Amino acid sequence: MGLLGAGEMRVLSGGMSTELEAAGFLKQGDPLWSARLLHTNPQAIKNVHTNFLKSGADVLSTATYQASIEGFKTYLGMNGEEATELFNVGVCLAKEAVEEFTKQSPDKRKVLIAGSIGPYGAFLHDGSEYTGSYVRDHSVEDLKNWHRNQMQSLASAGIDLFAFETIPSQKEAEALVQLLREFPNTKAWLSYSCQNISSTSYGERFEEAVKVAAGTNQLVAVGVNCCSPDFVGPLLTAANKNRDVNIDWIVYPNSGETWDNSLGWQTFKAEKRLSDYALEYVQLGARWIGGCCQTTPSDIASLKEILLASNPDVH
Predict the structure, then answer these.
(1) Could you tell me if 52 and 13 are in contact, meaning their C-beta atoms sit under 8 angstroms apart?
(2) Which of 4, 114, 149, 163 makes a 20 to 30 Å CA pair with 91?
(3) Residue 233 to residue 188: CA distance in whole angstroms
(4) What angle do CA 235, 300, 230 make, to 5 degrees?
(5) Where are the beta strands (DSSP E) in the chain?
(6) Pairing verdict, β 258-260 and 264-266
(7) Alpha helix locations (H) across 163-288?
(8) pTM of the model
């Protein structure tokens, strides 16, 4: 599909917001979440990008998951031009981190910049991004109209590909795949959020939902993120049985913790680390692997080490 050669793999970064929160930069309940720092503390975002690069990440996702033109207008009092510029800031921060890292490191690996596009529910800030309940009241065209401004802003800033991530429903995925055709020179990955070992967050069978990738040459990968790492194996296994989509898998689960919209992430002591799942994911066909919420640079470093030991074509 143009971004991976035969046998190659890519390691994604981990939880941007997790690192920012640990450093004291985020407030629980902020409707803009990490996207606010594009305006108030861009250096903090760049520092996190750099930490993930040092840990071996081959792909950086911009801090725009919870960003939207409407959100910046509402919560920062910006006009349309100012809001669009913040998307450019997000892309520039990732590019600057890569440029500075490359100058200081003998490691000259190619790093991709993925423009993060979160679900419409992330803007609603009511927990519906984890259920997809809003799609009952919105058509595919409604969702396309919502996402278009964010995609235009990121594409204009010069990303390598879009990251359609934590998408809870097939309807929203279909909207994004259709909208991607309006950007014919740009690739993307599509990643669902899933509530269990078989279903998307909205309740559709995962093996059916991934079929939205059929018939497009713009998607480089389809898969799952922001779910328990224990869910990934069963999800891919089921989807592989009747797989009619010739496309790579992408997986970047969280640490296994659960989200409570009132209390935040509910912590527990995980028995396994992200890297402990790596070879299972590879055997099931994943070629883009990383971490989501509550995964750290050390998790990405361990993941990279395991993957390099098993496959020299990891970037």
Answers:
(1) yes
(2) 4
(3) 23
(4) 25
(5) 10-11, 59-61, 112-117, 161-167, 187-192, 219-225, 248-252, 258-260, 264-266, 286-289
(6) antiparallel
(7) 170-180, 206-209, 229-241, 278-283
(8) 0.93
